[in-house]
Predict the structure.
Amino acid sequence: MLKIEKIHHVAVISSNYSISKHFYCHILGFSLLAEYYRAERGSWKADLALNGQYAIELFSFAHPPQRVSQPEACGLRHLAFSVQDLDSAIAELNQYGVVCEAIRVDPYTGKRFTFFSDPDGLPLELYELSD
């Protein structure tokens, strides 16, 4: 069996690099570890960390195709983040104009969660860990 140790990062392609970088860094709270302009591709790549841990590669490409999200398509469904206080997290996102779906309850764990989208419609989830 392959001995994978952990998830290294998630790659996100944005249609507008500056808008997405602002969203992930200034609204969601990721920190910018490194940023590169790749002239041969005419694109940007940013390495983003959450609480000091490398987590997301944010890319820009010229004219990327739209992601199919609705109805749900086969493949990666969403990216989830854990929070201690779901209500506070939703209120903070709302202050930035980010709309969250109605809160749901996981029928297996009893934990609350909600979905929202990044600037390109990538489905993101907040999952409450507190009891």
Observations:
- The chain has two domains: 1-63, 77-131.
- The chain has a mean pLDDT of 92.
- The first strand starts at residue 10 and ends at 14.
